Amino acid sequence: MPAISRGEVSYITGAASGIGRALASMLVGQGGLVVIADLNGEAAAGYAAELNEKAGTVVAISVKADTTVWEDQLAGFQQATTAFKRIDYVFANAGIAEHPWLPPFNPETAAERPLVKPDLATASINLTGQLYTASLAFQTFERQDIGPEGFRGKLILTASVFGYFPSRAMPLYAASKAGIINFMRSAAQYYADKHITVNAISPNLVDTPIAPDVLFVPFRERKLLSDLQLVLDQFGKVLGESTLNGQALSISQENVWVHPADTYMLEKNGPACDLISVEIFKLFGDRTN
Ligand SMILES: NC(=O)c1ccc[n+]([C@@H]2O[C@H](COP(=O)([O-])OP(=O)(O)OC[C@H]3O[C@@H](n4cnc5c(N)ncnc54)[C@H](O)[C@@H]3O)[C@@H](O)[C@H]2O)c1
Fold first, then answer.
1. 32-65 pLDDT, tens per residue?
2. Which three-class secondary structure string do you get for 1-47?
3. For ligand 1, atom 40: residue with the closest CA
4. Helix (H), strand (E) counts: the chain
5. Whether residue 98 has its Cβ less than 6 Å from ligand 1
């Protein structure tokens, strides 16, 4: 069963490779139009041309955009709305694997080394970049009518199981993905009555070019990889007429589940948390309750 209606438009960041690329292919296969946005402009253009040639008509355009650069992302969304008039789905998907933020821990040589500024590339791409995409999604949806399925638009963020589980080797990746998960849950509450849904797809390790092939070898041997098709199926569950909102659809090997929000001590915290929203809205002049 197709998840989307014919002619619906998807904007996908990081769509020249891996999960985003497979997602674009799935959506075009269902009669959709796609914007292939990627830092690698050549690969994005090549992939859009390939999709168009296969379809025999224009089903894809490409955008060269670094998601960490606001101007790039703004230009990408403007290019997309000029070409396709409307964007039904935005997939904030571009991301990288952990890029070490500090030199390896070594007390023996530490005193001889200068204190260094951390490399925050992982957080910049996986958190800030996705937030730029999200901000453009919401502002685009706000400016378009409610579609036949009852929505102005849907935002889907690619998170990870490391949005909930700590990782001693990937602190910035885990921090970014946890940030995306709680951003998703918070934004979903805000947009719930505005005909906009916000969800996240959170896979464990999937065999893609995100890391050198050698990294995947022991996972293949131990059958610890997650199936790409199962990941695509989870994206499908939040599209079209689906009313799912604020959910983290998770995948690990052959297991799929909706990861619950943390409710520990919420009963005690609830009244203060609710009142904070009311008072903050007053300060910001937002008319939302
Ligand atoms: N592969 C996995 O195991 C896995 C697991 C969980 C989550 N994810 C997440 O899925 C998403 C996609 O990963 P993938 O596995 O398909 O990786 P991938 O490397 O195959 O594809 C990522 C794409 O994003 C692009 N990209 C990177 N930085 C960018 C930037 N600053 N601006 C624009 N484009 C940029 C790359 O050029 C590439 O085409 C990421 O957010 C990743 O964290 C991946």
1. 999 999 999 999 999 999 999 999 999 999 999 9
2. CCCCCCCCEEEEECCCCHHHHHHHHHHHHCCCEEEEEECCHHHHHHH
3. 95
4. 10, 8
5. no
CA distance 189 to 174: 23
Nearest CA to ligand 1 atom 36: 14
**What does the angle CA 157 – CA 163 – CA 198 come to, to the nearest 5 degrees?**
30
Mutate to test the pocket of ligand 1, among 21, 90, 96, 164 (most ligand atoms within 8 A of CB): 96
- Residues paired with 196 in a beta bridge: 153
Token output for 83: 């070409």
pLDDT of the residue at 52: 98
Q: Where are the beta strands (DSSP E) in the chain?
A: 9-13, 33-38, 60-64, 89-92, 153-158, 196-203, 248-252, 255-258
Instruction: Show the low-confidence residues of the chain (pLDDT under 70).
Output: none
Q: Is the CB of 225 under 6 A from ligand 1?
A: no
Number of Cβ within a 10 Å radius of residue 152:
20
Domains and CATH numbers, the chain: 9-262 (3.40.50.720)
For 228, other C-beta atoms within 10 Å of its C-beta total 17
CB atoms within 10 A of CB 125: 21
Contact 119, 101 (CB under 8 A): yes
